[in-house]
Design brief:
The structure is a single chain. This protein starts with a helix and ends with a helix. It has 2 domains: 87 residues, Leucine Dehydrogenase, chain A, domain 1 (Rossmann fold); 144 residues, Rossmann fold (3-Layer(aba) Sandwich). Helices cover 45% and strands 13% of the residues. Helix 6 crosses helix 7 and helix 6 packs across helix 12. By secondary structure, the protein is α/β, with parallel strands linked by helices. The structure holds guanine (GUN). Guanine binds next to strand 3 and helix 6.
């Protein structure tokens, strides 16, 4: 079974639409999202464009702020404090990665927790860790959503998360634990990584390395969630991953998207899996929309 992220995203978007309208009816203004994009990382530019486009379709007001890439940490902090104070802005998203000269930890700490629609503020991370309601990071929340909406049982299953990032791996493990999975978190120092991965009923790959998870990591019948979005430009790597038949298509495009899981191995061995593209990527955006609407509802007294 292919876990279709586009279909799930569309369901979540459809659920968001009347809620955004209710915010408007109640307050005479739409839910508002400010997106801060510093620099010209091409992937970030695509992500931000997709986020603001989707928001527009739901009736969320967006404002993209693109300060000069040389902006200092202090000036960026000032920008965020102004957004924190603006009542028509319900959500603030700082697109990562930030340029190296900016202290990203200080920036994420400055976002008002009630407007932290990415769920990256330590306060929201703390709420998640202690099992309290709060803003959940979008990508791992989207993974739980697609599993539930496809009736994939989580409670009592062995879940293995590969990757321990603050954005995906750690919150993913906590959310799976919240759903009563037995959770193992793996990383670059894990001994016998393929062996640990083969214990998984649900395998979540969030490493950021193209097609690193291969057949020897996947127990036949496992559910595999591929969080990776990697763009490869090396023709030889493309042939290794997708086979020689694909070379003409690859050469026409000059690059190809590949997840952290080998696509052929995943399709052959998994009982259900999220494809790349069209799996987890669209869900991240859908959950951002939901977090923004929830922030608006909370801030305007609708819930
Ligand atoms: N960069 C890569 N993924 C994300 C995300 O989910 N949120 C933000 N703000 N930046 C990202």
């Amino acid at each position: 079974m292919i876990l279709d992220g586009i279909r799930t995203r569309d369901q979540i978007k459809a659920e968001c639409l009347p809620r955004a309208q209710a915010v408007y009816k109640h307050t005479r203004r739409p839910p508002g999202l400010a997106v801060i994009l510093v620099g010209s990382n091409p992937a970030s530019q695509v992500y931000v464009r997709n986020k603001t486009k989707t928001a527009g379709e739901i009736g969320i007001y967006t404002e993209t702020l693109s300060p000069d890439p040389s902006i200092s940490t202090d000036d960026l902090l000032r920008l965020i404090r102004i957004l924190n104070l603006r009542s028509e802005i319900d959500g603030i998203l700082v697109q990562l990665p930030l340029p190296d000269h900016i202290d990203a930890q200080k920036i994420l700490l400055a976002v008002a927790p009630e407007k932290d629609v990415d769920g990256f503020h330590p306060y929201n991370m703390g709420l998640l860790t202690t099992g309290r309601a709060g803003m959940r990071p979008c990508t791992p929340a989207g993974v739980i959503e697609i599993l539930k909406r496809n009736d994939i049982p989580i409670a009592g299953r062995n879940a293995v998360v590969v990757g321990r990032s603050t954005i995906v791996g750690k919150p993913m493990a906590l959310l799976l634990l919240e759903e009563n999975a037995t959770v193992t978190v793996c990383h670059s120092k894990t001994a016998d990584l393929p062996g640990v991965c083969r214990t998984a009923d649900i395998l979540v790959a969030a490493i950021g390395r193209p097609a690193m998870v291969t057949a020897d990591f996947i127990r036949p019948g496992a559910v595999v969630v591929d969080v990776g979005i990697n763009s490869i430009t090396d023709p030889q790597q493309a042939v290794e991953i997708f086979g020689a038949d694909n070379l003409a298509t690859f050469e026409k495009r000059g690059s190809q998207l590949v997840g952290d899981v080998h696509p052929g191995d995943m399709a052959r061995l998994a009982s259900a899996y999220t494809p790349v593209p069209g799996g987890v990527g669209p869900l991240t955006i859908a959950m951002l929309m939901r977090n923004t609407i929830e922030a608006a509802e909370r801030r305007t007294g609708l819930c």
